[in-house]
């Protein structure tokens, strides 16, 4: 039995990275300055801390953000947008514009 290998199109690959719930919002909030976990959490009132932690970990793995340990006792971590994340902001800006223009 010969199975053909399915290669997702570029749109699908991109959506797998920035299309997860809260990922775009996190990038949007990091666009102006680095933030600590609790600051991000306050900005995303509807998201659980577990989900935020998962998204941040995935975003770091995809090189959208940079995680920096500020201090070890107690542990303090800061998140900043990386080059790939900055590049994704233009997509989010277009999405914002489309949402407003279409009264969504």
Cα(first) to Cα(last) distance is 47 Å
Regions with little confidence, pLDDT below 50 for 5+ residues? none
**What number is the mean pLDDT?**
91
Structural class by secondary-structure content: alpha+beta
Strand proportion: 15-25%
In the sheet with the most strands, the strands line up as 1-3-2
In short:
With about 100 residues, the chain is α+β, with helices and mostly antiparallel strands.
Descriptive labels:
104 residues, 3 strands, globular
Report on this structure:
By secondary structure, the protein is α+β, with helices and mostly antiparallel strands. The chain has one domain (10-101): Winged helix-like DNA-binding domain superfamily/Winged helix DNA-binding domain (Arc Repressor Mutant, subunit A), CATH 1.10.10. It is 54% helix and 16% strand. The protein has five helices and three strands. It has helices spanning 10-18, 23-30, 37-43, 49-61, 83-101; strands at residues 35-36, 65-72, 75-81. It has a three-stranded antiparallel beta sheet with strand order 1-3-2. The chain is globular and about 50 Å long. It starts with 9 loop residues before the first helix and ends with a helix. The model has no long low-confidence stretch (mean pLDDT 91).
């Amino acid at each position: 039995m010969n199975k053909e290998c399915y290669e997702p199109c570029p749109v699908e690959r991109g959506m797998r990275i920035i299309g997860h719930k809260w990922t775009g919002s996190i990038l949007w909030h990091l666009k102006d300055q680095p933030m600590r976990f609790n600051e991000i959490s306050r900005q995303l009132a509807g998201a659980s801390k577990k989900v935020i932690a998962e998204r941040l970990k995935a975003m770091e793995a995809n090189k959208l953000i940079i995680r920096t340990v500020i201090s070890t006792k107690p542990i303090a971590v800061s998140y900043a947008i990386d080059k790939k994340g900055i590049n994704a902001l233009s997509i989010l800006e277009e999405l914002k514009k489309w949402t407003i223009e279409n009264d969504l």
